[in-house]
Amino acid sequence: MGKLLGLWRKKAMMYDADSSFNKMKKREIIMKDYLVKGLAYNGQVRIIAARTVDTVGEAQHRHYTWPTASAALGRSMTFGVMLGSMLNNEDKLTIRINGGGDLGTILVDANANGKVRGYVTNPQTHFPLNSIGKLDVRRAVGTDGMVTISKNIGLQQPFVGQVPIISGELGEDFTYYLAQSEQIPSSVGVGVIVNPDNTIQAAGGFIIQALPGTAVEIIEEIEKRLDRIPTISAMVRDGLTPEEILTMVVGEGNVKILETQEVLFQCTCSKDRSTKVLVSLGSAELQDMIETDGQAETQCHFCNETYQFNKSELEAMLEQAV
Ligand SMILES: [Zn+2]
Fold first, then answer.
1. CATH number of this structure's domain 271-320, picked from the four choices 3.90.1280.10, 3.90.220.20, 3.40.640.10, 3.40.50.150
2. Which pLDDT band holds residue 31 (cuts at 50, 70, 90)?
3. How many angstroms separate the alpha carbon of residue 261 from the centre of ligand 1?
4. How far is the CA of 307 from the centre of ligand 1 (A)?
């Protein structure tokens, strides 16, 4: 794990010298992360695409993820935020993936408003590029396990869907999840490109779904197009906007955008929430913290933020605790 990082860096640096990289860098400055939702083929096909460069970049920066881990987490966060955009206002979803690989568990939370957060158990996971020169996400994730997605949609129990990991590259796994668990014929593309200094160069994806009653010819047409067009990684690398990605997938003049939404890495943790957690530990535990260290620190799994508590703050908690 991570031993061949030097070699990987050398290869990536060769790409860095490419002029297309500099061209794209200029474009990045003016473009923020966002997703677009719409319809194609006279409303028969649902289309979503997202740019998630800064969002995945924020996750990379917060968790110090190495390239293969960044790709796995970034692909999952990109899918999460797109899937989340199909929920209603207050609804939320959680994606949990564990395939038995070195990465451990990938956990992603997303809501209906473009906010997403996520982490992996072992952020410093990296492997040499695979046989086709891509980040070896399959090896990091593993193929012995499940993709589990739970949706909180205002019911007493969350809706939980689960499928076995069939690829480990994740795009195919998400496609399989939608077909099996939600019974919607779909195609999911997610891609992340990492810079030599481990920052995120590009990230994005799309979801195409055939709504009930979609004509077979349309599905066949989309499948043919998906075979012909560049891979999502290539489109992401070339800095295509979400609108451009959708145009590539469903064809010029077929895209009808209905909604545009900002996409952002955002966590729900706060010092106040951490206080409540500490209070819930009970007075004996708090008393012990006060006597042993005279202070406490909590850390959020999702965003790596730490919260410090001094002695007087702990003493105030002790009064509330049981
Ligand atoms: Zn947090």
1. 3.90.1280.10
2. confident
3. 22
4. 10
